Amino acid sequence: MTTKKTLLVASVAAGTALALAACSSGPSTTEASGGTADTSATVNVGLYLEPTDLNVRTTSGVALDQVLIDNVYQGLVGIDSSGKIQDVLAKSHTVSSDGLTYDFTLNAGTVFSNGDALDAGDVVWSLNQVKNTKTDVGNAAFAAVKTVSAPSDDTVELTLSKPDSTLLYSLAGRAGLILDQDATNDLKTTAIGSGPYLLKTWKQGDSITLTRNAKYWGTKAKVASVVFHYFSDRAAAVNGALAGDIQVLTTVDPTLQAKFTGNADFALKKGTSTDKYTLVFNSKKAPLDTLAVRQALREAIDPKAIIAAVGGNGVAQGGPIPEGDPGYEDLTSIDAYDVADAKAKISAAGLTGSALTLTLPNVYGTTVTDVLTSQFKAIGITLKVDSVDFTTWLTKVYTNKDYELSIVDHAEAHDFANWVTPGYYFNYSNPKVNALYTQAQGALTDADADAKLAEAAKLVAQDAPADWLYTAVNVTAIRSTVTGFPTDSTSNRLNLTGLAVSK
After folding, report:
1. In sequence order, what are the beta bridge partners of 388?
2. Beta carbons within 8 Å of 308's beta carbon, 6+ residues apart
3. Which helix or strand (DSSP H or E) is residue 279 part of?
């Protein structure tokens, strides 16, 4: 256990889906259903957002985390079912009282799926690889790390130039994944990790298959394989489940949930999340470079109507930090729904009768955009919706920042850093926010860090670079014979250690 509390206590929402592959066995099939476990079973899971490739070092997006972290790849630490940091590849860890030294002792007998032993050398190499490569996902997490060393074969030490209250949480994600330094596989299409599952196949545009890792150093997976099927049509996904082709369907569309009513083969399970459905305004592009215009667009939006449209499966957010994450406070009063004031601001800006284009990935459907189109029309703005495939969105919006408005589900927990990252597609910058975030990172207590984050989040909300439409309540359809499937934060990571099927 740590010797110092850190800013790493995520919400329970983030935790259940992130239970540790090495340390949590999950509910047993007999406990949950009274049946006998079918260790030869294959579980078919329906998802919507497919990774563009499988390289965990260079490919952004939670679609990759969702499938590979905890299942195929592991880190020194992870997140347990209560949302707290817990040791995985590390048997224990300590943090010095000044926050400048992190020591990890490794579990004995850990191995990669190819049979290679996993030792401190692999850990040092993996962490230094991310630390020294600016293009690697997670590189920024090592900004305060001076050295990564191995005092012995089973110990690793990180020394910092200044305290970083977010480091352990970062090590539980992409930045901390441990790879085999002797492996020569192509990370774009294959994966060699230390988790309970092997990556067997990836049929691009169709599915990813994981199989039980017979060499796993911890408790073996309870099912033989898991197949993730990717759907661009949510109705087709529901039909696949009802036809028996899919045993688990995540994030069931609210307009389609009634199809499961009265079906004894499935249960709809609600789960909390940090999925922040965010309407981003490109603050560098006119007329959105004017604060009053951005405020007007926020005031035009009735979050109650948006949430009603998604079947009530959401809660109002109001700012960049969701409830449960460090620094949260209720900011829904900032630019609250006020059609009259929004119309006046749009008129004063000379924009009545003008149009704005909303570019978004087509996996999100039309439920929310239909409501926004109606609400913007009420203040004199025509909303043109450009629904594109995710690859196009990545190029046009995320990389080239060629957009006016966009909607994306920012599913990651603890991701306030996006608002202080230079060059991020938000096109937002505020030196005061940057300074407060830096102070939060350097805080030695949770209370101090939370206070600085809350202050920074309020400034962001007042700058109106986006409207945080809602935080999702995820609904998962699970077949009655399946137990141990996470229901919280299913867009982030799906830890399948406890997944089981009864005969």
Report:
1. 361
2. none
3. strand 276-281
Q: What is the pLDDT of residues 155-179, one digit of tens each?
A: 999 999 999 999 999 999 999 999 9
Q: Which two tokens stand for residue 477?
A: 């359809």
**Extended strands (E) in 127-275:** 145-152, 155-160, 197-203, 207-212, 225-230, 248-249, 266-271
- pTM, entire model: 0.79
Measured CA to CA, the distance from residue 11 to residue 8 in angstroms comes to 10
CB of 412 within 8 A of CB of 62? yes
Q: Is the dihedral of CA 490, 282, 353, 299 positive or negative?
A: positive
Burial class of residue 330 (count of CB atoms within 10 Å of its CB; 0-12, 13-18, 19+) = exposed
The amino acid sitting at 420 is V
**CA distances to 212, 213, 433 from 250, in Å:** 22, 24, 35
Considering Cα of 387, then 393, then 398, then 403, what sign does the dihedral take? negative
Instruction: For residue 8, name the pLDDT band (cuts at 50, 70, 90).
Output: very low
In 3-state terms, what secondary structure has residue 439? helix
Task: Please give the average per-residue pLDDT across 444-471, as a whole number.
Answer: 96
Token pair for 136: 């690697």
pLDDT tens, position by position, 187-214? 999 999 999 999 999 999 999 999 999 9
State the SS3 of 74-123: CECEEECCCCCEEECCEEEEEECCCCCEEEEEECCCCECCCCCECCHHHH
DSSP alpha helix (H) spans, 218-332? 234-242, 291-299, 303-309
Asked if 478 contacts 485 with a C-beta cutoff of 8 angstroms, the reply is: yes
229 and 206 Cβ atoms separated by less than 8 Å: yes
Give the pLDDT of residue 3.
Answer: 33
The DSSP code sequence of 461-497 is HHH-SEEEEEEE-EEEEEETTEE----SSTTT----T
| Sign of torsion over alpha carbons 261, 262, 266, 271 | positive
